[in-house]
Amino acid sequence: MPIEIPTDLTPELVPLSWLIGEWEGRGRLGSGDEESEHFLQHVSFTHNGLPYLQYRAESWLTDEDGTKLRPLTVETGFWALERKQLDADGGPGLIPADIVPALKSADEVEALRNKDGGFDISVSISHPGGISELYYGQIKGPQIQLSTDMVMRGSHSKDYSAATRIFGLVDGNLLWRWDVAAGGASTASSSAPGNGLEAHASAFLKRVS
């Protein structure tokens, strides 16, 4: 299925453009075995002309037929190419960016390709319960791999110390898997990928818009 790139997209979001839109589908908690609970998820990736995608994922527990039983959780965050901040970028806070994007052409974006032929990306995701994740990883064509660099937890948050996520576009559908490591006493702890990670959830989503 061809990927349509919005005409108003800032150049550095082109590598992420296949994510843009709304996705919905079903998944399983844990390892996805026979006893694993079912869930339904609706995910959106949107942009507003600035060099990042806005991410929102809302999930509900369901029965095995897909009927919603109750809300599960909501995630929100931002996805962007990982690069040095330039004078033309906005922030901190409400300091506006230049009208002309920091990266103005496809050639400038191509210069960011890493040695594997992909692009380094950063992703921040916030959860209810006082937990925020900062991921670094790579997008290479329609495949994404992410590992937490830091998990920040509030004083009453549940234990959660590290995670990895993978995403892939297969026949126009979005597949993802999320592995998690719990534990750790610090409220802001760096995490080593692969340290005690266990299957947390996975899903198969179809594009709905």
Give helix and strand order, one letter per element, not per position: EEEEHEEEEEEE
Proportion in helices: under 10%
Strand fraction equals: over 45%
Q: Major β-sheet, in short?
A: 10 strands, antiparallel, barrel
Query: Which word captures the global form?
Result: globular
Average pLDDT rating: 91
Q: What is the CA-CA span between the terminal residues?
A: 14 Å
Strand order of the largest sheet: 1-2-3-4-5-6-7-8-9-11
Compute the number of helices: 1
Q: What structural class should be given to the helix and strand makeup? A: mainly beta
User: How many beta-strand segments?
Assistant: 11
Question: Which spans of ≥5 residues are poorly predicted at pLDDT below 50?
Answer: 184-194
Rg measurement, Å: 18 Å
What keywords describe this structure?
about 210 residues, mainly beta, ten-stranded antiparallel β-barrel, 1 helix, globular
How would you describe this structure to a colleague?
A hairpin with a 2-residue loop joins strand 6 (131-140) and strand 7 (143-153). The chain is globular. With 209 residues, it is an all-beta fold. Strands 1-2-3-4-5-6-7-8-9-11 form a ten-stranded antiparallel barrel. The chain has one helix at residues 106-110; strands at 21-29, 38-46, 53-62, 68-81, 119-127, 131-140, 143-153, 162-170, 173-181, 188-190, 198-207. It has one helix and eleven strands; from the N terminus they run ββββαβββββββ.
Kindly summarize this structure in a few lines.
By secondary structure, this protein is mainly β.
Which secondary structure elements does this structure contain, and how are they paired or packed?
Elements: E1 21-29, E2 38-46, E3 53-62, E4 68-81, H1 106-110, E5 119-127, E6 131-140, E7 143-153, E8 162-170, E9 173-181, E10 188-190, E11 198-207
Antiparallel strand pairs: 1-2, 1-11, 2-3, 3-4, 4-5, 5-6, 6-7, 7-8, 7-10, 8-9, 9-11
